[in-house]
Amino acid sequence: MGCEINGLGRARKTRSGIDYGCEELGRLKSVLMHTPGEELSLLNELNYKHWLYDKVPEISGYIKEHRNYQELLESNGVRVYELEDYVDENTGLIKKMPNLTFLHDTAVISGKGAILSRMRPPAREKEEVVVKEALNNLGIPILSEFNGDEGFFEGCLLLSKETVFVADTERHTYPFIREFVSNILKEFSEVIYVRVPKARRYMHPDTVFNRIREDLALAYLPAFEESCLFTEDSGEKIDFKAFMREKGMEIISVSDSEQSRLACSFVPLESGTIFHYDTALDQKTRKDLENEGIEIISFHPDALLAGGGSLRCHTLRLCRRKIKN
Ligand SMILES: NC(=O)NCCC[C@H](N)C(=O)O
């Protein structure tokens, strides 16, 4: 079975369901994206910081680059589902949410269903409500969501069918992390928890860590203030790099300057091939990756940089599949 909606075009919703799940680092089959629109005109010189932008975007360039990125994904065989095609009830909210285009932060898709975030108010409040509707209309069940009022949790990373990576960032409240860890351990066997400095540059887990291949990742280790491993019946401090090495994963460290250019935040097309901003990595890291046989499909951001997000942030991965021999 493929990941596409059988016989239906992009403009039609379906209840028939699509294939989903991204734990395994297989070939990227489908993603959910939101082409930004009139919500970008909410931004001006007085409020762009409130809206968590680094500057006021140049709107036509921003939208054009977003479209170019979608085309790049499609030309590599990735099916792009457009959020708006799967939203009826919450269309009014979309126009009020200039950060909705950063769909990556709103949910993570496992084979058991979506792990829905709770976005931090005020700038990102209720984005998950829109995404939940779209996922529902795509036929992807919700595996986990937050019901309490006080708190937020902007995402985690799935490292395998067993392991979830959670970072305690400025976009996560500790009680929500505790609730999440205890609930998700019913579905996954371990959670790696990493405390990072509460600063915008480390706002989400993918700002400090991301896997490239089953045995290789990029990380900015100076931000790992404390790392712990939680299982259903234990919790212990770990040395993150040594722990990952024991699991067979080597880490290539990025520099302070690279981290600030979102070096750890890229989209694997498949194990060993990544889509990445051409501005994110220094020559040395490129060389190290080349020596490892990693292929980088480069994308040049200009207007897109105003939003403070990477290609990964614009991309909610829905389905990955390993090619069967
Ligand atoms: N994962 C990410 O790093 N997402 C980028 C989100 C950018 C957005 N303007 C924000 O600050 O929330």
TrEMBL record:
Q: Name one GO biological process term.
A: L-arginine deiminase pathway
| Keyword Hydrolase belongs to the record | yes
Claim: Hydrolase is one of the keywords in the record = yes
Q: What Gene Ontology molecular-function terms does this entry list?
A: arginine deiminase activity
Keyword list (alphabetical) reads: Hydrolase
> What broad class of enzyme is this?
hydrolase
* Signal sequence coordinates: none
Please give the name of this protein. Arginine deiminase
- Origin organism is Methanosarcina vacuolata Z-761
